[in-house]
Amino acid sequence: xxxxxAALAAAVxxxxxxxxxxxxxxxxxxxxxxxxxxxxxxxxxxxxxxxGTGSFTPIxxxxxxxxxxxxxxxxxxxxxxxxxxxxxxxxxATMQVAVDPPLTASRPMLTSYLPPGYEVRAKLLxxxxxxxxxxxxxxxxSASGSTLKVPVEVVPVDGLDxxxxxxxxxxxxxxxxxxxxxxxxxxxxxxxxxxxxxAGGNGWNDATxxxxxxxxxxxxxxxxxxxxxxxxxxDTERYPASRHGLRDWDVQVQVGxxxxxxxxxxxxxxxxARSDFAPVTTDAVRIVALASNGAxxxxxxxxxxxx
Length: 307
Ligand SMILES: [Ca+2]
Prior knowledge:
Elements: H1 4-12, H2 23-31, E1 43-46, E2 56-60, E3 65-69, E4 77-85, E5 91-99, E6 104-105, E7 109-114, E8 119-127, E9 135-143, E10 146-156, E11 172-174, E12 204-205, E13 214-233, H3 241-244, E14 246-255, E15 258-265, E16 272-292, E17 300-306
Parallel strand pairs: 3-10
Antiparallel strand pairs: 1-8, 2-4, 4-8, 5-7, 5-9, 6-8, 9-10, 11-13, 12-17, 13-16, 13-17, 14-15, 14-16
Calcium ion binds near residues 188, 190, 192 and 203.
Pfam families: F5_F8_type_C
Protein name: F5/8 type C domain-containing protein
Keywords: Signal
């Protein structure tokens, strides 16, 4: 059983200013897991202690945002943003959100009724249109006369610090896609392994229940040497991998236009599984999903990494 603090830390990425959360807030987040909910619109309000300064303070979940050029628009760069009230009385608080063009943000403002000490948070999507030049752009969060600037570093995928993960932000092709847009295939290479973003754009759910196999392939851009693939499947307290995750799959690599099976996973009940194999030079990695755990059988993948 994870602690509430751990669950929140995973759910919100950062927030040094995050104050104690209510159990109701955490329950809501868990209950939302399997149900579609537009991430750009969902807003969370959490209580805390007011400093009584009378001001509203913009908050960002990270010091900077890295936004790759040319990725699938279904999987834009994301940042947690928020607004904290240190007012003496409850009030409606509004924060303006602006980003240097041609970048676009998923919301122009964040507004909420906030009791003293409370904080409102939301996920902001920052899109990089085709043709955007590499460079640093500014995201500005403004409230109560104070502005928080967050640099947005726009870089080509080849320029990303991928930590050795060759799959990060590469093109993904899936055998099917759920009718709900919150399960895009590109989400399996967005760098976010956490199941907390499930149904919020952070994992792929295929469209063919109880029909197998399902496939999802990642083009690596160039011929790369690969000897390890890690797969993260849906795994939360409420929706554990042992009932909702992927059970059986093959790991394949493409060599000379032909798919070769380099590893097989059978009977998995964990949230993540690592496959090691003899190094092979390949230009694409594919997961062939053969079965999942539980009755409502879909393929649910949060992230795939290749090294
Ligand atoms: Ca992901």
